[in-house]
Design brief:
Blueprint lengths: L1 E6 L6 H14 L6 E6 L5 H8 L5 E4 L16 H6 L4 E4 L2 H7 L3 H13 L3 E6 L3 H5 L3 H9 L1 H5 L5 E4 L13 H18 L9 E4 L7 H5 L6 E4 L6 H11 L1
Parallel strand pairs: 1-2, 1-8, 2-3, 3-4, 4-5, 5-6, 6-7, 7-8
The structure holds phosphoenolpyruvate (PEP).
């Protein structure tokens, strides 16, 4: 199965999102073998899910709190994401880890909470440039994945997103992607019982229609998590077509 997910981050308002969705549904009609998702800001979830879910496009939250409700000002819970039309949630995006202090311990709780509320977690992992330069890439990926030893198995997608490739225009090279994805697959096989759900591993980091076909040809690359290029419906539709 192929997966292409748009991460809109903190971009777009109502009219722009509506125009995007209207344009996108005129360009793609996801069929069997491909899952397409959009992760809009919270304020746009109702609108986007209303427009896209009837067309077979999934909607993801960009984050979710582990508690179902309570005194957590500024947060949104997993049942609230479901209520707004989400079928999944991004967890552990590097911007959440870097700027909002998201820890692996918190992420283990969030993954479990997502499952409890029937949301598909898309767990994002990746090394910083400093960690890569220090030869610690696989160690860091192993550490970030180790939360699955605590959560146990469940429906899950993983995105390998080298932090230095996100929003920089500097995509990881094929050999780097291949090494990371092979390692992630081996770790998933080690951590999760065999015969359970086959986890798709997506690549993220400056994906464009120019660079995506090469990545899709690599073993263990099931698709992409796309930031910048996902804000243009023409480019995003092109990525979906390449993966189809
Ligand atoms: C992302 O935000 O997950 C991402 C991969 O962004 P970009 O495609 O802009 O690098």
């Amino acid at each position: 199965m192929r997966c292409v997910v748009a991460n809109w981050k903190m971009n777009l308002a109502t009219q722009e999102a509506r125009a995007f969705c209207d344009d996108l549904v005129g360009r793609i009609a996801p069929g069997p073998g491909i899952e397409v998702g959009i992760a809009p800001p919270f304020t746009l979830l109702h609108l986007v899910s209303g427009l896209l879910r009837p067309k077979g496009i999934q909607v993801f939250g960009q984050n979710g709190h582990a508690e179902p409700k309570g005194a957590f000002t500024g947060e949104v819970s997993m049942p609230q994401l479901r209520d707004a039309g989400c079928s999944g949630v991004l967890l552990g995006h590097s911007e959440r880890r870097q700027f909002f202090g998201e820890t692996d311990a918190a992420l283990a709780k969030k993954v479990k909470a997502a499952w409890q509320w029937d949301l598909l977690p898309l767990l994002c992992i990746g090394e910083t440039l400093e960690q890569r330069d220090a030869g610690r890439t696989l160690e860091v990926l192993g550490q970030q994945l180790s939360i699955l030893g605590e959560t146990g198995p469940g429906p899950l997608w993983v995105a390998y997103e080298p932090v230095w490739a996100i929003g920089t225009g500097r995509r990881a090279e094929a050999a780097q992607v291949q090494e990371a994805h092979a390692f992630i697959r081996a770790e998933l096989n080690r951590l999760l019982p065999t015969g359970t759900y086959q986890v798709p591993i997506l690549y993220g980091g400056s994906v464009t229609p120019e660079s995506f076909p090469e990545l899709l040809g690599l073993p263990e690359v099931a698709g992409g998590l796309v930031g910048g290029a996902s804000l243009d419906p023409r480019k995003f539709a092109e990525l979906v077509k390449q993966a189809s």
